[in-house]
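Quick log. Single chain, no ligands specified.
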Amino acid sequence: MKRFKLGILQTNHDKSVEVGDAHPDDAHRFRDLFDAQELRFEYKVYMTIGGQVPKTLDEQDAFLITGSPLSVLDSHLFTKDLIGFVRACDNAKKPLIGACFGHQIIADALGGKVEKSKNGYNVGVEETHFFEEKLWMKQKKQKLPMYVFHEDEVTQLPEGAKLLGSTPKCKIASFSKGNHIFTTQAHPEFTPEFMASVVSYTAKKDKRFNPQVALSQINDLTKGHVYADWCTEFFQGHL
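-> predicted structure:
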């Protein structure tokens, strides 16, 4: 059986000893998440953090934009090209997933709004309450607990987008557009070990950040694998 080709646009490259050197990078964490499933993928990683985006949409069957400690509100080397790529995917109805930074840049590129959260950092484990069921949500779950780590949030949906889920501290935690865009503010790909490292590392660098709540939730139940199952069903719907 021909493998499904998934292009992962990596918007982060952590060079720290404590995090970057100690754990797999963003693209590999998503690969590990998807490789736990029966369907096998063929992956290509695009180092978007360095300015690399796919030259054509036909290079892969679908795409995923990762999270990043960078802010969508700032201008980066890759911002213009990535926004153009998101718009091209939307126009062609190419299947596209966005997680955290990916969720935000998709919203921004398509005319939505991203702002700093009035509550500051939102870090720990939060349940996304899904009140809209899409065809690809084969495992019917109203609430999915997943790791979250963000300071920015989507505050206005793009025109034509549909709100799928909210968390207690983030109203627009998941949205879709048609059957070709599916996003989450959460990090389904995070593991407890990685979360612990990035929380501790951030606390050392940013004195505004209080790690106590997040560290107390490190081993709470999360269901990122269910979100991954939904992503696979989402991809298969375009085969």
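The radius of gyration is 16 Å.
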